[in-house]
Amino acid sequence: MAVTILAVESSCDDTSVAVISDGEVLSNLIANQAVHIAYGGVVPELASRAHQANIVPVTHEALKQAAISPEDIDAVAFTRGPGLLGSLLVGTSFAKGFALGLNIPLIEVNHLQAHVLAHFIKEPGKEKKMPQFPFLCLLVSGGHTRIIILKNHLEMETIGNTIDDAAGEAFDKCGKIMGLPYPAGPVIDKLASQGNKNAFTFAKPRVNGLDFSFSGLKTSFLYFLRDRIKNDPAFVENNLADLCASLQNVIINILVSKVVKASKLTGITEVGIAGGVSANSGLRLAMLHEASKENWNLFVPEFRFTTDNAAMIGITGYYKYIKGEFTSQSVAPLARY
Questions:
Q1: CA 226 to chain centre
Q2: How far is it, in rounded angstroms, from Cα 49 to Cα 31?
């Protein structure tokens, strides 16, 4: 009998529901929240209200697209954390109610682990090459920048972490300084393709080991623009593509250099990237370049599995179901997991 998981993801501002059967995604729906664009960032209260409005219709459509009924579901997987507490509470409460109503198991999922396990999602009719263990993965998103060793599907070790801002935050905050819309990362990526990545230089933080720091880069960028705008009020407008290319170049260099160091220290050549920033075209090209130099077996996720989505929650839930790792109805969401 196939194991069919209903998965719910609500850690931030996207309401997502997916159906996974034996590791294969049957549906994966995401309802975005455009309301936050006007504020230049996610407003937690607005996010949780939107989740409440979206979660039932998104679930209904996910079941419809998967061509299954609620009675076909074997377990419900949900994001317990980390994330915005109000948003997590909506997803957790819905998952608990759904599982209780059908008397089926409940599976809690760590959002960060799920991003890495997105590499193991299978799609109908497609051949899928999957990483072997141990697997070294750069997890890079708006809220997290980590280097992780995945020892098996459910055991991971963080060997590098950000000590302040994440890479995605650096993109968004620097984008905001330039007057770009939120989220700025994709906009910077697009503009960078039209600019000169060597046009400007910004201070690189010096962090020992495999940890990251991006707050100093953000400050350096802010002061650089402040000084240039004094002499030329239209400096940003006249140099926008070059600014984006130069900023993206330094962030990518920081990320990739740490992955190269981690691979050499651990001896692991099964290497991948995950998280929202892994959709960045510059990062993908840089990782492909290093993979050819370092003889890595490189894994880059499908674009639709890079951002927050329930399919990654579902695949993690699938492996936890096989291991019998269930949680109780008393479970509460965790902003920090």
A1: 31
A2: 13
Question: Where on the phi/psi map is residue 31: left (φ > 0), alpha (ψ -120 to 50), or beta?
Answer: beta
Answer whether residue 149 shows pLDDT above 70: yes
Q: What is the pLDDT of residues 195-239, one digit of tens each?
A: 999 999 998 888 999 999 999 999 999 999 999 999 999 999 999
280-304 pLDDT per residue, tens: 999 999 999 999 999 999 999 999 9
What percent of the chain has a predicted confidence (pLDDT) above 70?
A: 97
| Cα–Cα distance, 188 to 192 (Å, whole number) | 6
Q: What's the chain's Rg over C-alpha atoms?
A: 20
User: Which domains occur in the chain, in start order?
Assistant: 4-127+306-323 (3.30.420.40), 135-301 (3.30.420.40)
What is the 3-state composition of the chain as percent helix, strand, coil, each rounded to the nearest 5? 50, 20, 30
Residue at token pair 């819905």: 94
Determine how β-strand 24-31 pairs with β-strand 15-21: antiparallel
Q: Residue 332: phi, psi to the nearest 5? A: -125, 150
Structure tokens at 75: 């377990």
| Among 314, 175, 194, residue whose Cα is nearest residue 251 | 175
Q: Is 136 left (phi over 0), alpha (psi -120 to 50) or beta?
A: beta
Helix 281-294 crosses helix 240-266 at what angle (to 10 degrees)? 40
pLDDT tens digits, residue range 157-195? Answer: 999 999 999 999 999 999 999 999 988 999 999 999 999
Alpha helices in 154-304 (DSSP H): 167-177, 184-192, 215-231, 235-238, 240-266, 281-294
How far, in Å, CA of 279 to CA of 260, rounded?
Answer: 19
- State the burial class of residue 330 (Cβ atoms within 10 Å of its Cβ: 0-12, 13-18, 19+): exposed
Helices (H), the chain: 44-66, 85-102, 111-117, 167-177, 184-192, 215-231, 235-238, 240-266, 281-294, 310-323
